[in-house]
Automatic annotation (TrEMBL):
<dbReference type="InterPro" id="IPR020624">
    <property type="entry name" value="Schiff_base-form_aldolases_CS"/>
</dbReference>
<keyword id="KW-0456">Lyase</keyword>
<comment type="pathway">
    <text>Amino-acid biosynthesis; L-lysine biosynthesis via DAP pathway; (S)-tetrahydrodipicolinate from L-aspartate: step 3/4.</text>
</comment>
<dbReference type="InterPro" id="IPR002220">
    <property type="entry name" value="DapA-like"/>
</dbReference>
<keyword id="KW-0704">Schiff base</keyword>
<protein>
    <recommendedName>
        <fullName>4-hydroxy-tetrahydrodipicolinate synthase</fullName>
        <ecNumber>4.3.3.7</ecNumber>
    </recommendedName>
</protein>
<keyword id="KW-0457">Lysine biosynthesis</keyword>
<keyword id="KW-0220">Diaminopimelate biosynthesis</keyword>
<keyword id="KW-0028">Amino-acid biosynthesis</keyword>
<dbReference type="Pfam" id="PF00701">
    <property type="entry name" value="DHDPS"/>
</dbReference>
<comment type="similarity">
    <text>Belongs to the DapA family.</text>
</comment>
<comment type="function">
    <text>Catalyzes the condensation of (S)-aspartate-beta-semialdehyde [(S)-ASA] and pyruvate to 4-hydroxy-tetrahydrodipicolinate (HTPA).</text>
</comment>
<dbReference type="InterPro" id="IPR005263">
    <property type="entry name" value="DapA"/>
</dbReference>
<dbReference type="InterPro" id="IPR013785">
    <property type="entry name" value="Aldolase_TIM"/>
</dbReference>
<dbReference type="InterPro" id="IPR020625">
    <property type="entry name" value="Schiff_base-form_aldolases_AS"/>
</dbReference>
Length: 365
């Protein structure tokens, strides 16, 4: 306490003392009482990075209408940098086969293995190259509200059409914290909220979504809990995309989902479009279920990265901790491609099992 002598102290109790503001910079002390942190929260108090021009902005209703959104894979060069040539080919294939949107830097795109500089660069690159042909939805969510705000400002500044936001994971929060977290970014533009408790460790309950749906910028929810939750939302006017490929057919045609945010569409975009646009098709759905099961044998995107390498669409390069599926699973994929038909899959090369030594695992990049 000797070091604070002469600064003036406001006694809160016998055990805790703070410097008194009456001695600093000429400010007068208002009260010696402690003020709740709630009173210090200033909503949307940040530097506006997004232009006020509205002519090029995407209307939330345009996002709500999308039925096939691909969670696009990020391919790599042997040194671990982005392979933008392969990436551009992947996005072009999506556009040619009827996908209407892409999620950039999501879990499938390994946003968790990117620096924020890489993340925003890839969003901007996708907008610049393809923004006129497909909706670009940037994954700018974070378990840190400050990071989510900053990344979303930057994402919209480089032109993304909408943002994808996950709830804070690992360091979980309360219901009030969830609402405050999402409200801190919702005002910036069209937003999809992503609920995947298997990854975050915390469900976003419907009462949070219903509260947030009061914002005109809430485009909808990517929901992974199941079709009963999908139905609860759609019956109350909330747009939903299935986040589970193996449930998306029934979500779309039996439970009112608008469409799917898909991993499988990286491989068979035309068939996934058919599944979402052309009515109930149990036969096609059954044909694709083994592929979907194979893709999620290990945590996504391990299966997808392995499959695209086997198809010759991307280099067999993995950023650790992702590692390729073993040879036995790769041989299963070769068989699946032949059963479904090579012509339905992306790329033009023959599918190969590849040797273990063909794969490059990058720890530092």
């Amino acid at each position: 306490m000797a070091a604070l002598k002469g600064y003036g102290l406001c006694s809160m109790d016998s055990a805790l003392q703070f410097p008194c503001p009456k001695r600093f910079n000429g400010y007068k002390r208002r009260s010696s009482k402690w003020v709740s942190p709630t009173a210090a929260v200033v909503p949307n108090f940040h530097l506006p990075m997004r232009s006020l021009e509205v002519k090029n902005r995407t209307n939330t209703d345009d996002i709500k209408a999308l039925r096939v959104i691909t969670a696009i894979k990020t391919p790599y060069l042997p040194d671990g940098r982005f392979d933008l040539e392969a990436y551009d080919d992947l996005v072009n294939i999506q556009i040619q086969n009827g996908a209407e949107g892409v999620i950039v830097g999501g879990t499938t795109g390994e946003g968790q293995l990117m620096s924020w500089d890489e993340h925003i660069m890839l969003i901007g690159h996708t907008v610049n190259c393809f923004g006129g042909s497909i909706k670009v939805i940037g994954n700018t969510g974070s378990n840190c509200t400050r990071e989510a705000i900053h990344a979303t400002e930057q994402g919209f500044a480089v032109g993304m059409h909408a943002a994808l936001h996950i709830n804070p994971y690992y360091g979980k929060t309360s219901i009030e914290g969830l609402i405050a977290h999402f409200q801190s970014v919702l005002h910036m533009g069209p937003t999809i909220i992503y609920n995947v408790p298997a990854r975050t460790g915390q469900d976003i309950p419907p009462r949070v979504i219903f509260k947030l749906s009061q914002s005109p910028n809430l485009a909808g929810v990517k929901e992974c809990v199941g079709n009963k939750r999908v139905e609860e939302y759609t019956e109350n006017g909330v747009v939903v995309w299935s986040g589970n490929d193996d449930e998306c057919h029934d979500s779309r045609w039996d439970y009112g989902a608008t469409g799917v945010i898909s991993v499988t569409s990286n491989l068979v975009p035309g068939l996934m479009r058919k599944l979402m646009f052309e009515g109930r098709n149990s036969s096609l759905n059954s044909k694709l279920l083994p592929l979907m099961s194979w893709l999620f044998h290990e945590p996504n995107p391990i299966g997808l990265n392995t499959a695209l390498a086997q198809l010759g669409v991307s280099r067999p390069v993995f950023r650790l901790p992702c590692a390729p599926l073993p040879l036995s699973k790769r041989l299963e994929f070769v068989k699946l491609v032949k059963e479904i038909g090579r012509e339905h899959f992306v790329g033009e090369k023959d599918v190969q099992a590849l040797d273990d030594d063909d794969f490059i695992l990058i720890a530092r990049y």
